Amino acid sequence: MPAAIEVLHINKTFHVRKAAYAGLKGTIGAFFKGIRAQTVAKVGLSDVTFVVQPGETVALIGGNGSGKSTLLSLLARVMKPDVGTVRFPASADADRPRLAPLLEVGAGFHPDLTGTQNIFFNGSILGLTRAQMQERIGDIRAFADFEDEIYYDAPVRTYSSGMYVRLGFAVAVHTDPEIILVDETLAVGDEAFQEKCYARIAQFQRDGRTIVFVSHDMAAVRRVASRVVWLSHGAVAGDSEAGGDIEPVIAAYHEYLHAQADKKQT
To answer: Which partner for 2 in 40, 90, 188, 216 could form a disulfide, CB atoms 3.0-4.6 Å apart?
Structure first.
């Protein structure tokens, strides 16, 4: 059976501009003194390779800056790798797989459009027609379950972070995705909404959909994941692999965190 996702020797480097001055006055002063901003290369991912089989639920774990969100963005095709390949062999259209990315609060929404307008806007980004979104809008609203329907006619810039998550997740899960990509957005929703999301994820798992999600919450990882990939400094430090026990990788990650904490104290 073809793989759902192939990540092959991925490298991604970011070039961060460092300036030793701030504000207009500092910029002008630095110019006359001949001081130039420096550009520093920061490695986001280094030779990352793994293969995800259809129906797997993979949790990406690791500390802040380990490359988890960068990898998820590459899978979502929001950015491209400098080196390496991301492929979707099992998709009906390998060049345009049906992805449902939830990368950050408000991603894919225009702040000045209303909730309803953004439902159609977000749907078009995910590859659905207006007619298809019109068929789904009732279910999307029911899933988002805003306390007051007036918010659907309000600009989303007036929304709380929790409302962003509700609407974003509701749209994403009603687009018939092959692959679901979820960053830490679920941590923003309230407990009742999180349970609704977990129930939908469980349904996706029963349907054989592929899920990749980022989490610092090991309880959520144990509840949902069938596989864990641990990233450290942009590289794969551990992988339970398909059908393997996730606990040894989680334990190794926790040992690493404790060792790092001990170093800081000494």
So the answer is: 90
Q: What is the Cα Rg of the chain in Å?
A: 21
Question: What confidence score (pLDDT) does residue 41 get?
Answer: 85
What span, in angstroms and rounded, lies between the C-alpha atoms of 208 and 172? Answer: 17
Rounded to whole angstroms, what are the CA distances from 137 to 8, 13, 130, 131?
Answer: 38, 40, 10, 10
What distance in Å separates the CA atoms of residue 90 and residue 87, rounded to the nearest whole number?
A: 9
Tell me phi and psi for residue 109, to 5 degrees. -105, 145
Domain annotation for the chain: domains and CATH numbers:
5-98+177-265 (3.40.50.300)
Q: Is 84 within 8 Å of 10 (Cβ atoms)?
A: yes
The order of strands in the sheet holding 227-232 is 99-102, 179-182, 210-214, 57-61, 227-232, 235-239
Between CA 95 and CA 77 the distance in angstroms is 11
Q: Is the pLDDT of residue 20 over 70?
A: no
Mean pLDDT, to the nearest integer, of 144-163? 89
> pLDDT digit string (tens) for 118-150?
999 988 887 889 999 999 999 999 999 888 889
Instruction: Give the burial string for 154-182 (b: 16+ CB within 10 Å, else e).
Output: ebbeebeeebbbbbbbbbbbbbebbbbbb
Cα–Cα nearest to 148, from 132, 160, 135 = 160
Tokens representing residue 199 in the block: 């129930």
- Rounded to whole angstroms, the Cα distance separating 60 from 120 reads 30
CA atoms within 13 A on the CB side of 147: 6
∠ CA 78-65-164 to the nearest 5 degrees? 50
The H or E element spanning position 265 is helix 247-265
